[in-house]
Design a protein that fits this description.
Largest sheet: 2 strands, antiparallel
Distance between the termini: 51 Å
Shape: elongated
Number of helices: 2
Radius of gyration: 17 Å
């Protein structure tokens, strides 16, 4: 049982650290884009690399999209 917990913790920890990499940011973009595509929406979304910040000693990636309050602003084609 402890081994399964450790593996789950390792995966979660790895995913957390991957969120600050180009690969992690691109994976998040694809996940969000696919989520809305499965529901009939086409959204614009992309990752933007930001400079290294000395205070937090990390580089960051911003995810930019046309979502408004987390929802697509375009109407669903199936609802029209």
């Amino acid at each position: 049982m402890a081994l399964a917990y450790e593996r789950a913790f390792d995966r979660a920890n790895q995913q957390e650290h991957e969120a600050v990499t180009r690969r992690g940011a691109q994976r998040l973009v694809e996940t969000i884009k696919n989520y809305w595509a499965d529901r009939g929406f086409e959204i614009d979304i992309y990752a933007v690399e930001k400079p290294f910040v000395q205070e937090v000693r990390a580089q960051r990636w911003d995810i930019i999209s046309d979502l408004v309050d987390g929802l697509p602003k375009k109407t669903c084609p199936a609802i029209k």
